[in-house]
């Protein structure tokens, strides 16, 4: 069968359907499906993503075989609409729309009103009996064609769209504020001036022939797959470059035909908090782009009912129908042409983490979806949002009372953020790279700003509604955001923000000033405000709120209880202090997977004896210092054991290079000299002597304990004495002593012998025993490769994937910055391997270690304690290779629990027989956890990983 390049839809049926996203793109598939289920959709057709590949393969040429199909498809649309493409009497106009497999909002281009020229515009004016409308459509088309097809869109931030400049001048000349107030002659002049501008800048005439317009527009939409913002977006979301975009050509319906027409966007549920209501905005007498671009601030959907009660009813029906059919919250675009409703797009709606949890739980409770589906619906990372801080109500009230409320806006991205003000996305990136916390403030944002938005803590815009670009991105990235703060004006050149205060006074804020935004209440506040924990944290961690009245907490807890039933992997926390352990338990920790003993030495009164121990020259001096550390460490361990109440606790013996503990400033050196009775010069020499060229690969890990067994002895003693103390206090205790950086069985033998000897000594002294394990971290390749040997001694393995990644790649995790930057840019690494496990390399070593370890010791306990333990994609991998648990920081535990549940559910779906094609597909569509985590977030996690295992 010859390749089918075009799929038609319209007139209540379609050649495609919603399962053809790969071929038709999300938009094309959605339009086809809506046609099939009787939702009013203007007829059109979709050119497949394969044609996009053909286009690129042939050096950016449309395949010749497309022509006849294109002609035939146009004929069908002409028949359904009763109009003719290029017909000067009754012209068919079309939109040419982009649409990839997954939605990439606003990243690619669309051309509206195509088919207009000096002849057809006259026909349109006569047919519609509305010359103003006809010329308004024409001037929009010429500008869009210039921008999108002829590449006249401004490239630098400071530049303005040439057509916008002409339009502004025209409005000024006519003394009007809005486009819609321009008289028809002005619109006619605009068309001529726009065309002249095209001629001047491009040296080519605007093409009058509709067929030529169409070909050029289709090619331009294909090319928009490769524009900078689309590439940046793909990189951030792990979308492969090969997918390409489909192109949908669709007959136009007109929202700009007068006061009985309009256009809008809506969500079938509130995307910010998940409330079950139609939520959105519309504009009277406007075309679709106007709502999204934020040029005019739109009206709330609630006001639509007052204006057009009938249409509001129809929209409600569409909402119910689409939700029932798609079984998920939808994001729709609609247009009203002279009182008739058309739906132009439907897709699964982006939502905040808060909304995701609520919608999933409520849909499952309403039996619209199953619990398993609800679990697969929520991206694990989204749970972050539910844990996000808010401002302390009292402090904020005080600030507002003190007159610090600068402006209000629409709450587009919930949460609270304070930061320093920047006005350009580039600056947000640069400041963030310097370690600043920034808020990006702009008149409006556009897809070009995407990287800067990722770098900012949050953003605010003067224009636009809840469905503007800024709002969309905020929801997706989980950023705090306010949009439509109309009191704000910007002077980009002077780098200033001018605020029209409620009092009537003006306040001017410069770049770098601190401001705070409340993305839930919609407030901009001057200065830096302290934040307060989220509802969930108040209930679980602070215990300052009654769970009964806390709805957000209730839904969160419900979803996670379903997750706990579904998952096989256990979850543990990386925690060093009793209070962290308590938090971890509140978030569902089933044990501690990594207690880094060295973190304890930085506490009150501990660093002194630690330093004395390190600079000691003789074993005797060292033992004296260790004796001071013993009671301190024992007390820490006891607290940890008590907090964990019988859950297993893995304690790692001293790991980092010793010089990390030494003072590097004069005061510290003097203090240490005093404490040890040595001279300042002596201490300095000793500090210098401990310096290493490659400390990460130097005298650290088990190598320390092998050189100085008395350190391991002290730590083992502290562990076992604490364990017995805790047992005597009534707690159950299960210590697991973990030896780091083992690459050879004999290393572990040496250290395990010390641990076991001390254990016996303590048990004899105290006349009591506790059960314990001695195991090792697998974090150097040799350890993984000889795991079978090592497991003859080790009673458990824990994968230290931070170091294992570092040593497998031969890339120091402290120096990844410049390397990863270009590597990720050039797609040499698909994703930061310190954030998501590199399955092919590091993962292969892990598999070898699992096989070797379990081969030598069936039932060997296996876990992971690197930063990857809290990364959803890595959790899925750990599930797949059969680990027993993952361990991560306490606040990532909910994410790990959900990711583990999803891994188990996906595995079930994959192995279920006979294979329910649909269920498997659905799981696949929602397969975000398999995709690498967003890099923007990843980099931050990477920074955390430095302290890691
Ligand atoms: P994006 O993917 O950026 O949202 P779309 O292809 O959805 O781009 O088009 C942008 C806007 O143009 C939409 O809001 C839609 O309302 C409007 N639009 C697209 N096609 C048509 C059409 N056939 N008739 C009327 N408006 C249209
Ligand atoms: Mg759209
Ligand atoms: Mg390590």
Q: What report would you give on this structure?
A:
- This protein is of the alpha/beta class and 949 residues long.
- 47% of the residues lie in helices and 17% in strands.
- It has 39 helices and 34 strands.
- An 8-stranded mixed β-sheet has the order 15-25-24-17-18-19-20-16. The chain has an 8-stranded parallel barrel with strand order 27-28-29-30-31-32-33-34, surrounded by 7 helices. A 6-stranded antiparallel β-sheet has the order 2-1-3-8-6-7, sandwiched between helices.
- Strand 1 (6-10) and strand 2 (13-14) form a beta hairpin.
- Helix 13 (353-365) runs antiparallel to helix 14, helix 14 packs across helix 21 and helix 26 packs across helix 27.
- The longest helix is centred in the middle third of the chain and has 26 residues, at 619-644.
- The structure holds adenosine-5'-diphosphate and magnesium ion (2 copies).
- One magnesium ion (MG) is lined by residues 333, 345.
Beta-strand percentage range? 15-25%
Distance between the termini: 56 Å
The residue-averaged pLDDT reads 90
Hetero groups bound?
adenosine-5'-diphosphate, magnesium ion
Q: What is the strand tally?
A: 34
Question: Which stretches of 5+ consecutive residues score pLDDT under 50?
Answer: 915-949
Biggest sheet: strands side by side, in what order? 15-25-24-17-18-19-20-16
Task: Report the principal-axis shape.
Answer: elongated
What structural category do the secondary elements indicate? alpha/beta
The total count of helices amounts to: 39
Determine the fraction of residues in helical runs and give it as a percent range: 40-55%
Give a quick account of the main beta sheet: strands, pairing sense, barrel closure.
8 strands, mixed
Question: From the alpha-carbon coordinates, what is the Rg to the nearest angstrom?
Answer: 32 Å
